[in-house]
Amino acid sequence: MAERDPRRQPAPPSGEAPPPLAAEVATELEAAEGAADRTPQGQASLIVRTGDGAARVIDLTDGDAVAIGRAPESTVCVDDPRVSRNHARIARRGHALELVDLGSRNGTSVNGAAVRGGERLLAGGDVVRVGPAEIVVAIAAPALPSRPAPADAAPAGVADALSGAGFVVADEAMVKVFQVVQRLARAQTTVLVLGETGSGKEVVSEQIHRASPRAGGPFVRLSCAALPETLLESELFGHEKAAFTGADRRKIGYFEAAQGGTLLLDEVGELPLAMQAKLLRVLESRRVARIGGTQEIELDVRVVCATHRDLQAEVAAGRFRQDLYYRISTFVLRVPPLRERRAEIALLAHRFARQVAERMGEPAPRFAPAAMRVLEAHAWPGNLRELRNAVEHAVVLAEDGVIEVEHLPASVAGAEPAPVSAGPPASAGAPASVGAPASAGPPASVGPPAEDAPMPARLAELEKKSIEDALAAEGNNQTRAAKRLGISRRALLYKLEKYNLRR
Question: Looking at the keywords, is Phosphoprotein present (predicted)?
């Protein structure tokens, strides 16, 4: 049992007519084997909040038990007169997570239902209350094995091995998504996954594959927004040798690479209209012909589509084909944004912190209660990506193993970010920053980033140049350069790796 302490961390319009095949979907889902089993199948964690509202996370492996009570030696000590000395216990036995009330005076509740002197199996998203303490159960689906496509068959850049990122269930909103995913996986129907950018659409799509009979086959992802229109057809369908100028050998497309498995068409709303017509033909016929070829190849591929766009609005605007929309929206699954899944923030924040610390070769830091409260109060318009970036920022700056509020980005902590000055650096009496290193004179001249470059790219270029200047001024002495920049040496080493600068 591992404890991380303390670690902080849309519905369809009414009256809208369902797309064709809805009755077929309903029949297929009803034929699936009942509701999903929600007992833990992989990683299980408890997100514990006591008096101060801050959270800590306890990981559970097989055989672990968590004692809850007023006794000082309890794993979760709740100093409250309503709580018995030995109040309850949560134990993991294989795939089962069991709550036992130890004959407490005031009982224990799970999702508002009393459990007094008895046992109760727990599932992801369950909320256990013991006096003022709240314990949220989080589970992650297992990483099922994958059968990679042959090396000579997969298109360049395709990762068919499963990432093992897991499907975290720690909030009621995601419990509902998880239950639907488990049923959809068995039903083998086409699914359209909708959600804001960074909300986890790819993870949900991958979980549909993992939980399906196709789990032993490849999971292949294509970002429809990442390729120019001239390459999309070749990447999707493949081409024969000499099919066009530059086609010096036969190429297997994404559809063929996904044979026996699942193909995720991410950002499908970005497809050009001409490409939409060709995709519709393949989906309808379940056959594909490589460019320049005459032989049609029968497909055994499940297609999952994902997008952040409102495809019905795109259809109305003439940017998305209505017939293709009906073909891919046999079932629509909406992934809630992170702001609607606040019970997961503490768990995800810890997970991201651990990943960053491992890359830096450091132990994972813990979150101060105030820092976690800030994370849980933030709106997270950038969803998981924004949270991951904020945690990475904090881990780099936290030197004593504790992430405080001041280590979080200004956009998250609530302060206005300091303006980036193009003028000379701060005076000797002012603190230095990475964006403006202190020096006796102006920095060496450098061509500034293009004025029309995105702000993150411009800031990154300024930071990189500041690091190079500091190293040059200090004769490549990293300790002195870090001091000059006003950051720790550990943070400097991380940034050297980030910007691929020579160490």
Answer: no
Residue 168's DSSP bridge partners are 140
Please say if the pLDDT value at position 119 is more than 70. yes
Among residues of the chain, what percentage have pLDDT more than 70? 76
Give the span between the Cα atoms of 249 and 421, in whole angstroms: 52
* Residues 363, 223 contacting (CB under 8 angstroms): no
Most confident of 164-178, 433-447, 476-490: 476-490
Query: Nearest 5°: CA angle at 81, between 127 and 89?
Result: 40
390-412: buried (b, 16+ CB within 10 Å) or exposed (e) per residue? bbbbbbbbbeeeebbbebbbebb
**pLDDT above 80 (res 281):** yes
Q: Among 72-81, 385-394, 472-481, which stretch is predicted with the lowest mean pLDDT?
A: 472-481
Q: CB-based contacts of 462: which residues, under 8 Å, 6+ apart?
A: 420, 435, 449
Of 48, 184, 174, 196, nearest in space to 123 by CA: 174
Question: Which DSSP letter does residue 248 get?
Answer: -
Q: Which CATH architecture has domain 168-334?
A: 3-Layer(aba) Sandwich (3.40)
Largest CA distance in the chain: 80
* Domain ranges within the chain, ordered by starting residue: 44-140, 168-334, 340-413, 424-503
Query: CATH: 1.10.3720.10, 1.10.8.60, 2.130.10.10, 3.60.15.10. Which one for 340-413?
Result: 1.10.8.60
Residue carrying structure tokens 């956009």 = 411
**Least confident window among 50-64, 142-156, 188-202, 383-397:** 142-156
Q: Which of 326, 310, 287 is nearest to 190 (CA)?
A: 326
pTM: 0.61
DSSP 385-428: HHHHHHHHHHHHH--SSEE-GGGS-HHHHSSPPPPPPSSSPPPT
Q: For residue 6, is the peptide bond before it cis, meaning its omega torsion is within 30 degrees of 0?
A: yes
Helix (H/G/I), strand (E/B), else coil: 457: helix
Structure-token pair, residue 428 = 């000797």
350 secondary structure, DSSP code? H
Q: Which CATH class is domain 44-140?
A: mainly beta
Distance CA 137, CA 229 (A): 45
C-alpha–C-alpha distance, residues 137 and 134, integer Å? 10
Angle at 433 between CA 427 and CA 436, to 5 degrees: 60
Name the percent of the chain in helix, strand, coil, to the closest 5. Answer: 35, 20, 50
Q: What is the CATH topology of the domain spanning 424-503?
A: Arc Repressor Mutant, subunit A (1.10.10)
Distance separating alpha carbons of residues 331 and 277, to the nearest angstrom = 20
**Mean pLDDT along residues 428-452:** 38
Cβ atoms of residues 494 and 487 within 8 Å: no
- SS3 (DSSP) at 334: strand
Q: What is the pLDDT of residues 309-335, one digit of tens each?
A: 999 999 999 999 999 999 999 899 999
